[in-house]
Amino acid sequence: MLPPSLRGTFRTDERARASYSEGAGIYRIVPEAVAVPADVADLQTLVRWAARGGHALVPRGAGSAMGGGNVGAGVVVDLTAMAPALLEIDPDARTARTSAGITHGELSLAASRHGLRLPPDPSSM
Predict the structure, then answer these.
(1) Does the predicted TM-score (pTM) go above 0.90?
(2) Dihedral through CA 80, CA 53, CA 19, CA 8, nearest 10?
(3) Model confidence over 69-103: pLDDT tens digits?
(4) Which of 14, 20, 65, 71 falls 20 to 30 Å from 123 in CA-CA distance?
(5) What tens digit of pLDDT does each residue of 31-46 get?
(6) Is 12 helix (H, G, I), strand (E, B) or coil?
(7) Structural fold of domain 9-78
(8) Which residues lie below 8 Å from residue 77, measured CB to CB, with a gap of 6+?
């Protein structure tokens, strides 16, 4: 696998792959590689590379989901470094906007200040 040219990182070493093989759930799947795009342009380069080469991309945020969606056999894409932390609650619309690195626990705490909650209860709680 020839990695794309990124300003961020693209690693295929055993240590990086092992560290992204688990999330908060019970699943353990060692990925083929780990990518940490520096910005949106980097992410676009990665997506084009994956589409051309038929590589599966597995998006990952804080890794706190228990459903297994944050691990996979393809290239795990760590999105937490792409943007500053974003956590906005609109209590009137009952919506929230967050960036990839925000955990469910952080979101729930912010929502609770407005009498709101997000029902799922992952390990980050």
Answers:
(1) no
(2) -40
(3) 788 899 999 998 876 788 999 999 999 999 887 88
(4) 14
(5) 999 999 999 899 999 9
(6) coil
(7) 3.30.43
(8) 35, 36, 37, 43, 46, 57, 58, 59, 60
